[in-house]
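The protein record quoted in full:
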Amino acid sequence: MRIALFEPEIAGNVGNVMRLGACMGAGIDLIEPLGFSWDDRRVRRAAMDYIDHVEIIRHADFSAFRKARAGARIVLFTTRAAQSSYDFSYRSDDVLLFGKESAGVTDAVRAVVDASVRLPMRAEVRSLNLATSAGMALGEALRQTQGLPG
C-alpha cells in the first residue's frame, strides 16, 4: 500500500507522512510541484531518522505519477466524496491519494481516480490536517487488508 501526496505545500506535513509510512510499511509518492524546497530542513526535522526507512518516489506531475502507478487502484480522500472511508473495501495494493493542503486536487485529477472517499467529521469544520488524514486512512486500509505491522 502507498500514500500519494498531490502537490503538498507544507514541509512538516510531508515529514510526518514520511514518518507514518516508515512506521507502517507504506511507500510515499510525492507529486510535484512541491510547495517548499525538497532539502528543506523542516522535512527532515518532522521525519527525523525515519526518512531512511521509507521508500519515497517523487513524480514530476500527476501524469508521471499515473504512468508510474499504472495498474494500481487510486483512492482519493476528499471532502467532496459521499462515501465514508470506513464503508470502503480496500485492497493491499491501493494508492491512497491526498490533495494539497489549500485546495485538494484539481477537477482533472478527481475525474480519473478509481474511487473517492471521505473521512467522516463534524459538519461545522472544514478539514483535517493532511498527516492526520493520512494516518486515519492508512490505519483503516491496513486493518482491512490485514497489513498492519506486527
Q: What stands out?
A: Strands lie at 2-6, 27-31, 56-59, 74-77, 95-98, 115-117. The chain has one domain: 2-144.
